[in-house]
Amino acid sequence: MTQTNLNKLGSATVGALGNEVGVPAYDRGAVRPGIVHFGVGGFHRAHEAMYLDRLMNEGQALDWGICGVGTMPPDQRMRDVLQAQDGLYTLVVKHPDGAMEPRVIGSIVEYLYAPDDPEAVLARMTDPATRIVSLTITEGGYHVNQVTGEFDPGDPGLRHDLEPGAVPTSAFGLVVEGLARRRAAGVPSYTVMSCDNIPGNGHVAKRMLTSFARLKDPELADWIEREVRFPNSMVDRITPVTADTDKEALAQRFGIDDGWPVVCEPFTQWVLEDDFGGDRPPFEDVGVQLVSDVEPYELMKLRLLNASHQALCYLGYLAGYRYAHEVCQDKLFVDFLLGYMDEEATPTLPPVPGVDLDRYKHQLIERFANPEVRDTLARLCAESSDRIPKWLLPVIREQLAAGRGIDRAALVVAAWARYAEGVDEQGEPIEVVDRLRDKLVERAQHNREDPLLFVSDRDLFGDLVDDERFVRAYTSALSSLHERGARATLEGPAG
């Protein structure tokens, strides 16, 4: 496909794409916003927006279009791309055999960058047609103290939004102000639907948003507690960062000039608590599992998939790998991952209705090993301070309480500490990406002379440093990583 054959994606050109490309079969002009979504990134566009597009293609949910909202400076790029493409983007499913399955998604019909016009965002949120506000604002976006579980109002954006009369700038500020205006106008509340990788994400969203509201208006907080529904959910689809090579492949193979396509694996799962304050789309018609209790599915995903991503990313990076599929094509690492899942994570899980856990775990390895997805270890290593405390440390604590093994999980924590030193085993610099980067790197610099300093941060690790079994396993693992390296450590004790 030559450059002159390219179609710049947009409403005027979508009908000219080839038969190999799926396009909206519905009249997008008839779609009306019913959902406001904060955090329009790859994950949302490979998941919630995709399911709604499926419904619309079946002639349903045309009153459930998405109004995307960005609040952070990097969101300006998403604004520019989506506005230039009339909200359209290409979702490319990448199969292990190299096949690419592109589909143009049309469910996002509006995108607002809140700093441009916060009142426009609030007007959309107070419109009675908006019945759901959904969130993918990352684990750190909920402002949870990692040890106490309580709300942490220290973020500068939150402090600004708590000032009397302030025009809100943060996602929390906008969501709460939207609810306040609906209450004042006598408009029923919207449902707040978290889609982030957090245990009990609906419960956490309710507790944190209500705590924020209580600092502004205690009566509003009481109303939110009574009136607003916060369903829990578990969402699962590996969605790596879009690379320039993905855009080039889409252009060359399918003739689509898309400023920001999304690539993902074939697997997708969404388990959603059927707890909505009003109407909702008929998600179950397109494969979403509507259940009364999400927790078993959620724990399965967080402690098997998400924690296993942490188990492979630091050790794999230190050993010289740069992609998840490379690690999961190495039997030594696969055996370690399955050992962690079988011996340490699975004993902490309740029964999961309708799921064969043994099959699920082997399927995870197959998904991680998909060479076409090209999920970078750097992405998986990012923001560890928001991930390890939620995904891996609960496994360690439950295993310790039950007197069961923790050696593999402790090695993962040690590998994080070793990674945070900022230099790999070949002496090459590591770019540590974390909101707590400075503190983590400073502590990790002392790993050799003070091996407990990194895990003595009680804001992240609580009292684990006081547990002799954990300390013994952690320090042994850290010492081996320093003296022998990641690969030799996985191979077993020296001699």
From TrEMBL:
Major enzyme class: oxidoreductase
UniProt EC number: 1.1.1.17
Keywords linked to the UniProt accession: NAD, Oxidoreductase
Catalyzed reactions: D-mannitol 1-phosphate + NAD(+) = beta-D-fructose 6-phosphate + NADH + H(+)
InterPro entries registered for this protein in UniProt: 6-PGluconate_DH-like_C_sf, 6PGD_dom2, Mannitol_DH, Mannitol_DH/Oxidoreductase, Mannitol_DH_C, Mannitol_DH_CS, Mannitol_DH_N, NAD(P)-bd_dom_sf
PROSITE patterns xref list: MANNITOL_DHGENASE
Gene3D superfamilies: N-(1-d-carboxylethyl)-l-norvaline Dehydrogenase, domain 2 (1.10.1040.10), NAD(P)-binding Rossmann-like Domain (3.40.50.720)
Keyword Ion transport part of the UniProt annotation: no
A family per Pfam: Mannitol_dh
Classification via SUPFAM superfamilies: 6-phosphogluconate dehydrogenase C-terminal domain-like (SSF48179), NAD(P)-binding Rossmann-fold domains (SSF51735)
Domain Mannitol dehydrogenase N-terminal, chain residue ranges per copy: 34-283
Domain Mannitol dehydrogenase C-terminal span(s) in chain numbering: 293-481
Coiled-coil boundaries: none
Oxidoreductase recorded as keyword: yes
Record family assignment: Belongs to the mannitol dehydrogenase family.
Designated name of the protein: Mannitol-1-phosphate 5-dehydrogenase
Originating organism: Kribbella alba
The organism's taxonomic lineage, starting at the top: Bacteria, Bacillati, Actinomycetota, Actinomycetes, Propionibacteriales
